[in-house]
Specification:
- The complex is a heterodimer of chains A (about 270) and B (about 300).
- With about 270 residues, chain A is mostly helical.
- Helices cover about 75% and strands about 0% of the residues of chain A.
- Chain A has one domain: MetI-like fold (Orthogonal Bundle).
- In chain A, α1 packs across α15, α8 runs antiparallel to α11 and α9 crosses α10.
- Helices cover about 70% and strands about 5% of the residues of chain B.
- Chain B has a two-stranded antiparallel sheet.
- In chain B, α3 runs antiparallel to α10, α7 runs antiparallel to α10 and α12 packs antiparallel against α13.
- Classes of the chains: A mainly alpha (about 270), B mainly alpha (about 300).
């Protein structure tokens, strides 16, 4: 009996966590101008419709922003993982003499967050003519050392025999990376990649500063522009939020095991 | 240089004729680092150094205007605003870090039980974490609406009289930000605690049960010590995340009411991008970096000393 009550409590708590999202979706499906206030509004489903979605998608660039976020997320993740894996390989498998020095320089990147170097970063982007360009978001996303750190740990676990066997087969160092280390760290790369993609997708402050046109805007930074537009009703604002949230929620439901694993691995070891 | 070796030391020093191959190995290894190092240097190392340089100048969005030495720093440190924004940032740390850690631990302990609908419950707790800060700020901005928001409606249901102006009343605004942030990020804390719980060997619990230890004793003497490493990591992670508070404030309160919720990062943002004083904002950034480095040093000491 006590166990049953505890289980009911846990489910109730879970529903409480979902409540804000359920509310957002409900408001977005109600006719423009109506509010969800009483319990009666929750259970009256006859007036639900998708007009708000049509309106938001037609009158704003939100689909374009979603596309931009996706492109930037994929580019950042793929390039960052490839570069991090190469660096991790050098640190793990090539006994060069300056590696301690380089390792410390790269790991120092964990100390100072982007938020603390906003101004000079903006100055750099300005000089490289990257302002209002999607590469202004991708390139700084490649500096996260956590991928190097994690992939190095995994490559350290690649058995020496594998390396030696490949060397006997005549593999040079690039072959060792491509044919031995890369395939053996695939699951780690997926985990780190998911972590990077979430970071990129949700990155707010830097895109908010470095992207100025509606055309190049990303989802997270574009959303607040709806607030400065006073003509928008609560229903439309919640519709815009829902459009931004729904792809994330769907992907999460599909890939949740990998996502939870990726986040917990990157979090614990980082 | 050998003392810097991060892990497995390479084979002993090469003999003389091998010198050339040592250099070749050196260059080849660096070749593997270059793809990572180029963006890293351009978008991390250089901005850090350039920020220090800019902080010594009057600098606008057009570029350098004149060298002023440490005048920017003096200006910041003489201005009471700096201390009040710094305090706001740390105040948020004091509210958010303990609450999110305790709540995350509680959720992890719940999930760690043998429950029905366990996957659903875990997903529900974690889901908010994958949303972007603008989405969660939009949702809570309206959940906290004094007249039509569900939060006040719920409180009214429980008999509270008078509406709480969550985002415009200085007594409640920090709690509103904390509630929204906890809801958003607690899933992350929970998942890390779950990973930590799974590392505690089950036979420790068995042994304690045989010895007659109650649930509370098992929690205090096995679970908590078993989680100490992951707890320490999380505390520092959350301190730094809380200090970086910007998005929620920018969207939900705009720094208000008055100046109550202006934080360090928003201070830098306003000085640099709203007032166009890049030099002054760089000096603020450098001070912020120093604070971050101090926290990292404390973290290093604490996690190093106890875990070897």
């Amino acid at each position: 009996m006590r166990k049953w009550a505890f289980n009911a409590f846990a489910v109730l708590l879970a529903l409480l966590f979902i409540f804000p999202l359920a509310w957002m979706i409900l408001v977005s499906l109600k006719p423009d101008g109506t509010s969800v206030y009483s319990l009666a509004d929750w259970v009256r489903w006859s007036d639900l419709n998708t007009d708000n979605y049509v309106k938001v998608i037609r009158d704003s660039s939100i689909l374009r922003w979603t596309w931009n976020s996706l492109v930037i997320g994929v580019l950042t993740t793929v390039i960052a993982i490839a570069f991090s894996s190469l660096a991790a390989f050098a640190f793990s498998k090539l006994p060069f003499r300056t590696r301690g020095l380089f390792y410390i320089v790269i790991i120092s990147g964990l100390l100072i967050p982007t938020e603390a170097i906003l101004i000079p970063l903006y100055e750099t982007a300005l000089h490289l003519k990257l302002i209002d360009n999607i590469w202004a978001i991708v390139l700084p996303g490649l500096t996260n050392p956590i991928g190097v750190l994690l992939l190095k740990q995994f490559m350290d676990g690649v058995p020496r025999d594998y390396i030696e066997a490949a060397q006997i087969d005549g593999s040079r160092s690039f072959g060792l990376w491509w044919r031995v280390c890369l395939p053996l760290t695939k699951s780690a790369m997926v985990s780190v990649g998911i972590f990077y993609f979430i970071l990129s997708w949700n990155n707010f402050l830097w895109p908010y500063l470095s992207i100025t046109s509606a055309e190049n805007m990303v989802l997270s930074a574009g959303l607040p522009t709806f607030l400065s537009n006073n003509t928008m009703s609560l229903n439309l604002i919640m519709t815009a939020s829902a459009i931004a949230a729904i792809p994330t929620i769907v992907v999460f439901i599909l890939l949740q095991r990998h996502i939870v694993q990726g986040v917990s691995m990157s979090g614990v070891k980082g | 240089m050998d003392t810097w070796q991060p892990s497995a030391r390479p084979n002993a020093a090469p003999s003389r004729p091998k010198r050339r191959s040592v250099w070749r190995l050196e260059l080849r290894a660096i070749l593997y680092l270059i793809p990572f190092l180029v963006p890293f240097a351009a978008f991390y190392l250089w901005p850090v150094l350039n920020g220090a340089w800019m902080s010594l100048h009057v600098w606008g969005i057009q570029g350098m205007e004149k060298y002023v030495g440490f005048a920017n720093y003096r200006k910041i440190l003489d201005n009471p605003d700096f201390y009040s924004y710094l305090w706001h940032s740390f105040y948020f740390v004091l509210l958010c870090t303990p609450t999110v850690i305790v709540l995350g631990l509680v959720l992890a302990l719940i999930i760690n039980q043998n429950l029905r609908f366990r996957t659903f419950i875990r997903s529900a707790f974690f889901l908010p974490y994958v949303l972007s800060v603008s989405v969660i700020s939009f949702i809570w901005l309206h959940l906290f609406d004094p007249k039509n928001g569900p939060v006040n409606a719920l409180l009214r249901l429980f008999g509270s009289s008078g509406d709480i102006n969550w985002l415009t009343d200085r007594h409640f605004v920090w709690w509103a930000l904390t509630i929204a942030t906890d809801w958003w990020t607690v899933g992350f804390v929970m998942v890390l605690f779950l990973a930590g719980l799974q590392e505690i060997p089950p036979d420790h619990y068995e042994a304690a049960k045989i010895d007659g230890a109650g649930a509370w004793a098992r929690f205090r003497h096995i679970t908590l010590p078993g989680l100490s490493r992951v707890t320490k990591i999380q505390i520092f992670y959350q301190i730094i995340a809380s200090l970086k508070l910007f998005g929620q404030v920018q969207i939900m309160t705009g720094g208000g009411p008055g100046d109550t919720t202006n934080t360090m990062i928003r201070y830098i943002y306003v000085t640099g991008f709203k007032k166009d004083m890049f030099g002054l904002a760089s000096a603020q950034s450098i001070l912020f970096c120093v604070i971050m480095l101090m926290i990292a040093a404390i973290q290093f000491k604490i996690t190093d000393r106890k875990d070897g």
